[in-house]
User: Fold these one by one.
Assistant:
Number 1:
Amino acid sequence: MSTSTSPRPIQLETVRPDDNDAITQAFELGCQFKARLGMQMRGAYEQAAGDGHLLVVKQDGRVIGFALYGTAYQRVRLAYLCVSTEHRRGGIATMLVEHLSAEHHDLAGISVKCRQDYGIDKLWIDLGFHKRSQVRGRSHTGRLLDVWWHDHGHPDLFSRQDPPLLRAALDNNIIRDLGPAQSRPGASESLSLLADHLTDQLELVVTASVRREISDLDPGATRDACEEVMSRCTPAAPASQAVKAAQKFLLDRVDAEHSPYPAGRRDEYDLRHVASAVAAKVGVFVTHDARLISVLRKPARALGLRILEPADVVVHLDELTRAEAYQPVALLGTGYQLKALGSEQDQAVEHLAATVSGESRKDFLRHIHALAVARTQRRAVITPDGDVAALYVTGQQGFALTVPLLRVANQPLADTMARQLLLILRNHCRASKLAAIVVDDPHMSPGTQRALLDDGFQQINGRWIAFVIDTCGTAADVERDASAVARHLDLPEPTPLRSTMPAAVVAQLERNWWPAKIIDTALPTYVVSIQQRWSNQLFGVPTPLWREDLGLSREHVYYRAATGGPAAPARILWYMSGNTPAAPGIIGCSQLELDVIGTPADLHDRFQHLGVWELSQIQGTGGSQRRQALRVTNTEIFPYPIPLPRLKALSGPRTGLLYPLSPRKIEPELFAQLYREGFDQDA
């Protein structure tokens, strides 16, 4: 008598944050293959589960495969794809990738990095990926990694490089961990910084202060190993005066409970290391020294430096990267001004010559003189000390605003400055009733080029081009106008747009083609109430908005009670409440990029680089202990605010819109009418 057993069923599920058993099983399965996946951290699995980004396949209650991933920059970043040995060639990897693709089909696609010497190209091809580029790994062997891409077939407006680098300075204990002595406590966590999937996203920096401490070690294997690790990191030697100033600031703000400080040579080293990281203008200092963290984390944060353990860096990499690259709060109240620059001031800008890329100062001055003769307009960002921090030149050719020169000085706020200038250029283009920006400067810095990519520019035949589509209409309307611009510029016409496009795709289109608004799609619009004191500080309303300075940024964060709030991506129409000094009404429109709920302290630490809110003000915005942070960008202030009586007339029976104390979702037709009237009273 023979018996047959049917194949045991398998289940695919997204792991819940409280499912410790599934988290543990996935972590242990990953550890079995750490030779290929790299060092594993349970905390990364827990964080992924908390974000809904840990996908597992089970059979008889056991995890036999998983995908751990993140979402950022309009893509899925696949960190680990793992299947148990006995279940390979059974379609598990296909099941995981297909589910991941279906679940996040609104994003541009899925990216993954894989070492070439693993020899599994056929696997990625069978899973629907194609090879897009290659990078070199960070390990001592420097193996080549292929970058694979699984495209979701959306309009081809996602031509952008990998996310910008996060620069993280290493403490000496981390450097020791990264050497051969991997049995040190905490070494496995530190080694996660070398993971293949972090290559070209995380730049490891060693300051001169840490190098000096390593040099104090006795000659031998340990020091040699540390020297080898440091040779693969980026050196930083900030000015001694900047280090001393940072040390004084830190000492003045060390909590009394840690007094006296420094209490010995170890503390003196720690203080100097953190001050050097501050002076080097990196965003993160990585350590697992408990005393250093407890004493210096808070005062260092006030200087813009996060002191983190390795696991925190790896788990929160995307958010940390964005915070370092864009810090508009650093410009608030600083007195930077935007001014026209005459030809008699050429010598004041010669330091902007791109000597690193082979441009001499003489050639640069000759170029800007020729541009002046061509009757272009030159504008400069002037520091409070009177120095030129940035310079751009504009002209006009047909339907395009031409920018033959765009330079930002090499200084700590360079990335922030570049992003500010791009919004100024978009506003200039829109005000001039032009439909595209063409940047044709071959000597722009890498940071400026990253800002262009992030802002929707595409590099075509050596020029950087962005559409500025001032259309609020259907997908067909916006496609028609964008296609007309492409024809005038002799460019390929954009991929056809559809009203069925997912909300995330529409949001990216509206960002890339700003100020375009595509109304017959899934992207929602909310009316959100804001008090006049906050609209004044964030948007300059009701006081005049435009001043000749850079105090107002293109990105803001707004805090509200953590109930019934809008979900990103979306548009927000701002309803300014109150009666003095201005009448209530709709004052402008923003793009909502992120919504986060958390404690006031956590949200303030996460977003303080963006805004004007103090922790006490966030704590006072509602009755509960949790708040919602809304990160918005590209705010448009209406030239003709829509007063309450007009809003009442347009709203008809929608009585809830008359006093929108809580966010209200509105129909596309009403949004279009409000938006058009905000720019044209006769619309």
Number 2:
Amino acid sequence: MKSLRIRRKPFNPIIFVLSLFILWFIYSFLIFPNVNPIYETFFGTGTFSLESVQKLLGSERAVSSIINSITLAIILVFTVNLVGIFLVLIIHYFDIKGAVILKLSFYSTLIYSGVALNFGYKLVYGKNSPLTNFLIQVNPDWDANWFSGLFAVAFVMTFACTSNHVLFLSSALKNVDYQTIEAAKNLGASQYTILKKVVLPTLKPTLFAMTILTFLVGLGATSAPLVFGGKDFETITPMILTFANSSSSKDLATVLALILGIITIIVLSFMLHSEGKGNYISISKTKTNVKKQKIKNCLANIVVHVAAYLLFIIYTLPVLAIIIYSFTDSLAISSGVITLDSITLDNYVLTFSSIEALRPYFISLGYGFTAAFLVVVVCLLCSYLMKKYDNGLTKALDYFLMIPWFLPSTLIAVGLTVTFNDVQGIVFNQVLTGTLWLLLIGYVVVNLPFTLRITKSAFFGIHNQMEEAAKNLGANAFYTFVKVLLPIILPSILGVFALNFIGILPDYDLTVFLYHPLYEPLGITIMNAIGNSVTADTKALNLVYTVILMIINTIILAFVYGNLRFNRRKMGEHE
């Protein structure tokens, strides 16, 4: 009887070296920087000490910032969901006059966000804005700084954070089976009952995810509280930034970031637990697309239309303000009064006539392209290993790469800054804090989870027979990957590359902790221009930056979603 032999896969030196690189990267930039600051904070003296925690809890500003962040997060959960659901219903469910124009306005947050969006809202509602000037004329006692504090931050973030709703909740609504709506109609159910009992329950999984994401965004808000919070409303992340910039308070920054991280982990764990228990999906074998519903009640129809166009005004004004003010002189920008004489092209001429003026753009473009490319390469390699070697090591790799999803970017930034502020053997005795490399590493780290999920889904959607066929024809692993596998998943890869790229360009929340002072990225430049002490000429230049940013983002999004629709159409024709 012949002895049975276990068939082992041949040793591949390239895969081995790449695996070692991945292990080094994970330990160096995902595990070690997040553990080291905690150890230094609590065991820095050689023994366990809670002195930093006691010192933090004794700070009234720090405790107040924690309470303010939690308050803001809870408020946003209600306001963002309310507005987001309403937007999706207006765009895809109800038959609203001018829905196409409304859709363009509601999708505007996809082409500008963060500091650029805050810039637009400050032009509309801030000091010396036309609205503020009008209110002062009506009431001379009106406070010019009226748009500040919790109300202002919650207002801006409510309309800034609906991007996920118009993207993902819209897709979920399109998957609702119209036959269930027709069945409810035939049973005599009213439009309100159908919406409440049939449509919204099928959106629960997506709504639940949006709720958690909204809470975490509110909890870690940075730019909006800095711009509109004022002295009376400080949140966690700006407070961490304040502590991190002081050499004597870095331990407090670590503790505060750790608190933020603990809250984030608790919320995400609750989400995963609740998501596992939930069962809201209803599937039909022959699904019919949802048809837009005319609102039969006359009063309700008027109210919905008025609310829709009121939201249209709120979403459109900041975009128009950025575009219009970019074509005005410094006097109009500083005073908020626009006349025919103030219209000029000088801002654009000045921007494009000097390489130095475009320097922040070149820096951000360089960071954006390099980081988006590197994170895609790392995730492609990891996804390939997970598909080819389904074992405990690759499953552990999947969990380790999810670390940035469970930690706020603030905690990651503080960890990188504190850890690599000194010589570390793990990075060949180099000091990375204050260099160009640390921001690049930060961008790669925070974009790993989302990119890995997309690339992994694309990889696992490929039939194994295709790879086996290439192998039988004599193709090696590298040739098979480049010529067979990569072309199939390329549309998804290009899509995630583009989304990461446009997310990095205006980033401020992570950038402010890690950037090199001599190489100021676009997000920092725009944020600096929002301050009241900045000259009008500087604001004019940054208005042009923001317009260019919106144009770039529009082109990229049009390419990505146009390409996805084209591929879906081709697949439909093939089927």
Number 3:
Amino acid sequence: MLSYFAMIWEEEDPAAADLVTDIRSRIERDGLAPYSHFARPGLELFDFSRLPFGGNILALPSSPDGMGGAIFGSLFDRSGKSLSAPDIAASGPPFSSRICRSRSDELLRNYWGSYIGFLDCGDRFVIVRDPSASLPCFHADQCGVTLVFSHLQDCRFIDRSAFTLNRDFISKLVIYDKVQTGETGLNEVRELLGGERLVVTSTRTMTELAWDPRDFAADVLLPDQKEAARRLAETSQMVVKAWASRFDRVDVSLSGGLDSAIVLACLADAQRGRDVGAIHYRLESGDLSEESHAKSAAALAGIPLETIRVRPNSVLPNVAAHPPTARPYRSFIGEAPSLAGRISPGERAALFTGQGGDHLFLERRTPLAFADHILTHGLFAGALPALLCASRLSQRSIWEVLYACLPALLLGRRESVMQSAFRHRQEAMSEHADAGPSVDASLPEWVRNAKGLPPAKFLQVSSLPHMVQVSDSATRPDALAIVHPLISQPLMELCLRLPVSLLLANGESRGLARQAFSGRIPDSIRRRMTKGSASSYFMEFLEANSETLAKTLRSGVLAELGLMDRDELERMTRRENLSAHRIGRSLLVAYAIEAWLRTWTRIIGTPDRQAYHHSQAQHEYH
């Protein structure tokens, strides 16, 4: 797992300089020797990664105008070449000057990867998070020092006793734990979202949107279907090959679905003769097995497959064991079995997944694809075939498609995925929990405002926060990188630029991807229109842990704070009520939040002593 910590400060500020000195001494006293370290005036960056290989800090050569900095993580050029520290050094000061003078625009335009950029731009520092948001990035201010970190739980040298619970944000998580606003569970800690940059000057700190997915969606590509399929296959191949070049061994988590099969096909072509494997997690529950599909994909790729059994009677983690992260994580509830035992000492190993394909290749059955066609091509250019495709895709009559598209065509209505999901969750959870304030105003502007995009394309754009959130993690000690190669900037930008009608080619969800990988994945997977389900596993897991859930939540901090009603918790946690899917899922999310709250109340005090909301903190970064 990659982990970093950085400090930015004004060297002339005595209080800030004292805190920096104090943090340095705490790091040394705690024996937290970083894997590598980078420093320049007013900036220090520490690498606390657990992966068994270096090169995570790419130092930028200092330019004659004094600009410079470092990039933490993995960086590729647009052809997919992995850039090492010597590559960056050889690029010379002009490279640094271009990156810093553009305040990261040059970096975002000509490079990609999994990184956080720390740029000294002369009159300001800029921290930028790559658009795929694959490395966490949180920041806080203490005594004039801007602290930037990936994993708060690794930063024992920070004074965490000064933090306070952000009750408003926690109430939003209880309703919908996927919400991303830049807030965290702590008033004093903010999250830098994908494609954002934090600008730090001597007088203020502010957040800017540096990479706007709406701009790429508005810059429409209109190749014919064959050419679009070729570009999609070529870009997918490039990003998978680029990521594979970083590792000695790669395994693919092969679910049996389309997206992981595509990743395996790309990897097999890129890694001929190298150490590649596939893993299938077989749920030991009443769900229909996906193992036969996984076997067929592995056989066609010529890759050995290992099946790992996952039983639903696993025990929930101890409620006192959630690490002190900046926000609660659903992954705390349970992750896939560890693969650490498969890794040889010093081996650079990764597990690739197919995450991201649903959002980029477009797993949607929306009738709004017809509205996009009309708004893009007009009423008479292929309208009838587009209407029939939308009807086939959405499995609605042509009259139902027309009716569904009227609000978008006549009124310009656009629906945000995150806004609608939060609204529906508020309605569903209103009986069980404090619904809290509306989340709309605190969501990123590009998630709320279509900026002229047609409705189906805006559905894709506004769903991206759901996609990138799979990169979140609590501390996982495995020396194994979890990589989602499809969630890479070049593929994101290509799929944003392609019209919905092309992505849903032939009136099929992920239709273009199915065409692009014809012959490279089994037809039984390519033509399959259904997805696997884990509903039985989910219910069996709930039932196995019902007593723990009931005991924990009925007497927990969530109830004490009034975020969940005790009487409703009594009803929800009865075994006979667990079969209600929404209730069951909500209980597991609540358990993770409860565990997080108990960790932080041990660190910073009981809830009745907390200042739940700091209005100044809410406005400081705007």
Number 4:
Amino acid sequence: MAAPCVRACRRLVGRTGAAQQLERGDGGSNSSSSIIIVRAHRNYSTSPFLCQYATPKQTDTAEEIVVPRKKTWDKLAVLQALAATVNRDHTAVHYRFQDDPYLIPRTSPEFRLYSLSHESGRNSAKYIVNTYPNLFQKDFAEPSIPCLMPEQLEPLINDVSEAALKEHIQLRKVKASVDLYDQLAQAGTPVSLETTNTLLNLLCVYGDKEPPREDQLEPREAVDQDEVTGDLQKRRKGRLRKASDLLSVTWRENNNAERIFNLMPERNAHSLCTMIRGMIKYGASTKAINMYTDLLNNRMKADVHTFNALISAVPELKEMYNEKVDFILELLKQMAEQKVQPNLLTFNSALKSLRKCGSIAKGLSLQIMNEMKSLNIEPSLATFDHLLGIFYKSAAANWSQTDIIFEVLDNMKEKRFEPRDPDDVNFFTSAMRLCLELKDLELAYRLHKILETGNNWTLLGDSYQQSIYYGRFFNVLCMMESIDVVLKWYKALIPSLYYPNVQGMKDLLQALDTENQFQLIPHIWKDIKQLGHSNKQDLVEEVLKLMSRDKHSPELQVAFADCALDIKAVYIRDQFRNLQWTATSLGNVTALLLRGGRTQDAWGMLQLFKTNNRVPGKDLLDEFLDQAKESGNKALALDLVKLASAFSLPATSELFDRVTTEFELTEEEKRSLEELEATSSDSSDSSDSDRE
């Protein structure tokens, strides 16, 4: 009985430790923070300006074990446990598209259209609910879901009072709040400092502009301008933009925030800190630093959020690298002097500003990581992203001597991250870019394993960033991995997670070319059509070039000929829009049809040369003549010479010699060919004299 009791006690202690971690809010697996130190920089010590806040080291005395009376489970614990037992189905589409199988997007344009329609429908529903709340008075939902019910958008207090002002501020009505404040000031009614500070918060958050409603649709003018100008960058991103992204708000001189701030009979540190953060947010960094000086002159103390904003504005305040670094150090020292406890965003802001300080920022960035270690602040994905951005500059001469990315991934191994910084979503795409530029396949696999750990995939960002990440990952696979493994990943990622662009399909074709897997090209062409890339000129010509470059087995040539006919149909259907016949594409399609035994279709392609003002090459005509000789088709050989004469090609005489030598011609056929040759030579001589 002793052994089961011991095991039961161990299980109970383990659950107790997990419960304590949940109560502390450190997430369990991320509770222990390990520092990243490059082996080449072991001599850096903890920075002196923040180390006074380091937590004391734990003693060796055993902690008292407190056995909880009961375990409190999260409402989603059962669903999360069930979800952990299910892996993603690679053959199924993304879960967001499974509501209506008919509308499942198959191509990248369809995916964008579906996403925009989905967002537009959601915004329309919000607009109806919030505009006509009287139509949704009864709540039939069981259980009730308050977030789906109409929001209170109209104020209930209509008189001129401080209570009405508070309600307007809570409803985020900027202009109405300012007007009500002015009415109170004109009536001589004093407004409390707390309410005035709340109004300043509202003005500084939205830049003295009305906040856009969540159900507000994108302005039509911006969409039309995007379509007219053909802004490739905007169309390539394909993001779901809100109206707030389209409004370029700057800090106006003597705006309502400044006017109300100057009218305040008394101000406290909160008032000045709010103004500083608002000025920095909307580009008035110089005015913000001047107000910070006023705050210090009045012997007030800034809060941690104000210091974070000031640190993030350093690149706009200073020009030289050393000036930026010195200013960051000065702000951190002032935090220590004012006994302001830094948080994660403080260090992330410092690292983000150091990314614009050149190579001299590497040493300070390691000191910052040491300081986070001493303060028991767990780095977020944004921390690692800024650290990689400091050590891996685009202009770096030799990245092979910098192994910080390997230590970063070692530190992140098997950890589960939660969103703690808005820049967290940039890590995976940036790190995969480094894997691609370093051409390190193992590093890419390690990064992808971290992405698939727990719910880390939720920090990949929006659909645009997901496309970038998987595109870079697939590019690394195509360059460094064997074709069998590439095809396995191709089936796993496409199209359930990734709609490849033109470059992605080119990378796959290059991988097939490297390992001589040309028999797969017809299948890849079907996928190209399904993904909506069959109207991309350079991609279609790349497919034709790979199929026509060498001769293959008769069975494969027949498959290539069928594929060439399909490509010809696409050209004819899409001609004069995106696809246009070139001499190269015409020649490749003709050669493929000829090698596949479709001589009549190949001859029809020769007629398209003349229709599209293109000239067939000599190699193609020689291949036609070889085919005619092999099949004993004397009529085809004669027609070929006539065609060359009609084009006035310099190779007409060579074709004439080959036909007269390799075929048994009648006297009438010889005379006809001699007349064609004479006509062709006269036309070529006249064209030469014209050029002279």
